[in-house]
Amino acid sequence: MQKVEQEKSVLRWGGLAGLLGGILHILAFVVVLAGPVGLEEPVDLEEWVIRFPDIRAARIVENGLYLVALILGVILFLALYRALRRTNLAPALFGSVLGILGLVVLAAGALPHVATAPLSDLYHASGATPGEQATLALMWQAAWGIFDALLAVGFFVVTIGLIALGVAMLAAPNFGKG
């Protein structure tokens, strides 16, 4: 009896983490769309660096919400593994591991302002020459390239994990046909 209650508790926590993580993802997008960041893309490379001080706080809030949502996703993947391991172990295990691995990759790229804020500070420093500013803008682009790569790989790996978990769910009586 106690084991059943523990199992239900794990699933409740996983469901709660999934709901809260989804809400935080939506809030992160709201911060971007409704805040000073907006959807407007800068015209050239240096404009990204030039406007960063105006959107710095919004980016920090957005990235913080995103990071917490990713951490909550780990709890959801663990709960799904726990729920599916008895009926279809291989897809449940591989799906959960790949999902968590993808979330770790996404989390590694969740805080780009940690790398770009110092570049912005140097760019906007009073003694920065136009040549130094151009170099800093290129460094900014390189940093963003790394974060974009982490985002693409993370989404790809999480998606494969979700597909594997979907396969496990189809065979589980509580989720699919069973």
Task: Please provide a written account of the structure.
With 178 residues, the protein is mostly helical. It has one domain. The chain contains 5 helices and no strands. Helix 2 (45-84) packs antiparallel against helix 3 (89-108). It is elongated. The two termini are 24 Å apart. The model has no long low-confidence stretch (mean pLDDT 91).
How much helix is in the residues? over 70%
What's the number of helices? Answer: 5
Helical/strand content category: mainly alpha
Order of helices and strands: HHHHH
Residues in β-strands, percent: under 5%
Number of domains: 1
Mean pLDDT: 91
Shape: elongated
Radius of gyration: 21 Å
Number of strands: 0
- Uncertain parts: none
Query: What gap, in angstroms, lies between the N and C termini?
Result: 24 Å
Main sheet record: none
Keyphrases for this structure?
about 180 residues
Helix and strand arrangement:
Layout: H1 2-34, H2 45-84, H3 89-108, H4 113-123, H5 130-171
Helix pairs in contact: 1-2, 2-3, 2-4, 2-5, 3-5, 4-5
What can be said about this structure in brief?
The chain is an all-alpha fold.
